């Protein structure tokens, strides 16, 4: 009833092009932003930040990045973990080499370095497609993890082979290191998520996004309308890797604080982010958030229900958790192969007609 | 039709046709041992509607693919606007102002009609990645300016109502029309149509014929088309090239071609009373 486009006339193409053409959506978006920026930081404690918000936000950036590559440009990648590791190690090296520069800049630069590495590993995509490309990016995953394990320069010759984030501040407030407050690290990540989402949305709705989608849907037709496949694919790899690098830097510096590459950025991470993108919905920014939320929140929720409410032993709950999450993923994919974003779209379309669908 | 001079000629219905825009000189195209096109030369003039006809497997589509850069001929030269064209990739051909449609529809199924037609404007959109990421300012202005062109094409082809519909949901005839819209949005100098009326009923063919004539008339677009419906071809086109087994067997106005004995033997046949 309130969710209507009728009466909400657009008189310019700028208005027609906006991200949320329906008024209700627009207000809901502002409301979510207000809550996220003003209300949540006041309310949350360490548990909420570490178990829910930080992984959700950081994985959302990674999922946005991977979605640009897989969902928008149609190039399958299994190298996400490796590219996150590049972001993390680049951030670490920059933090230790230039301690006086703001961490904000470091994270962005780490993204830039990852973009460059991503383009290098994206080069094979010009010749190979589909599953074969997936295997080629898998090589990136294994190579990069091996590289960061074996070359001591990357972890500054530390005895443990780990990298750990020194304390850095933004406006005098520590955001990395042991003495960081929950709200500070949350805010730091939230800023990056918001900016990433807006940038990704802008890129995907404009001509760059159309080039990517054209390559995804039919590369021959894309070429005939003037899309250079080389530049389109490599730009997708670059942008995608940039976001993934940023998420890797945040994952290491802000969330974990200390990282061992094989453990934090192994092949499981690549699959996790890929699942987020598929479950959330390929080719949808909202889907990236939905997928990240689904795979981060569901285990936490299940644990709370099984252990907290039903009083099951922790180890039993942990095993069952795997099975239930797995079963739910399958159920979701059977019910809606196009992901949560599609469910959301269908729901919105139904809602527009409610309560008089005929 | 008057005599063809260097500057052009006047058609039967009084349209002025200009100088040679594209010239194919002695094109030969081989796939291994198979000769798809053998030593074919013809030209396309400014403002003309030029048809390529012939039986199945005559090499018509291969010819179109040579023009649009998918195939590089082993021998022969392609001249465009008085310059010899170096071998180039299809996207470079598109940037020169040559657009085309396909025999089997080649739309982007995952995108809306509007987005599909907007992709036709890609060669005209120059703003960089950074300004697009920021969006406000240059990228948005460019988007709106190109949207205006696209809306004109959408009006022209009468597809306003399906603007925001995903292409995958459209019926065949409309998809063909959207594909034409995408090609037109590029404001091409030369438009290549590969069987624009294949699989259509009479009404849809009439609509499509009208659009082709209107495009030529209103935008002055030069059109080269492949088509099997002889009624349509003879009505629409100013000059016709006839191919058979990769060779050119006829070239001229519809009337000349219709009375050419080679063409009758190879393709048109005779009516038995």
UniProtKB/TrEMBL annotation, chain A:
Alphabetical keyword list: Cell membrane, Membrane, Transmembrane, Transmembrane helix
Record GO cellular component, one term = plasma membrane
Domain of life (superkingdom): Bacteria
The protein's matches in InterPro entries, at most eight in alphabetical order, are given as: ABC_transp_permease (IPR001851), LivM-like (IPR043428)
For this protein's source organism, the top of the classification is: Bacteria, Pseudomonadati, Pseudomonadota, Alphaproteobacteria, Rhodobacterales
Q: Which residues cross the membrane?
A: 27-44, 50-69, 76-95, 101-123, 130-148, 183-203, 234-258, 264-282, 289-310, 316-335
Q: Where in the cell is it found?
A: Cell membrane
Instruction: Quote the protein name from its UniProt record.
Output: Amino acid/amide ABC transporter membrane protein 2, HAAT family
Kindly give the Pfam families that the UniProt entry links to this protein: BPD_transp_2 (PF02653)
UniProtKB/TrEMBL annotation, chain B:
* Keyword Transcription on entry: no
> Do you know which PROSITE patterns this protein is assigned to?
ABC_TRANSPORTER_2 (PS50893)
Q: Which residues form the ABC transporter domain?
A: 22-270
As one GO molecular function, the record gives: ATP binding
Q: Which InterPro entries match?
A: AAA+_ATPase (IPR003593), ABC_AA/LPS_Transport (IPR051120), ABC_transporter-like_ATP-bd (IPR003439), BCA_ABC_TP_C (IPR032823), P-loop_NTPase (IPR027417)
Keyword Transport part of the UniProt annotation:
yes
Q: Which UniProt keywords apply?
A: ATP-binding, Nucleotide-binding, Transport
Q: Which domain of life is it from?
A: Bacteria
Any stretches that span the bilayer, and where are they?
A: none
CC annotations in GO: plasma membrane
The name under which this protein is listed is Amino acid/amide ABC transporter ATP-binding protein 1, HAAT family
Q: What organism is the protein native to?
A: Thalassovita taeanensis
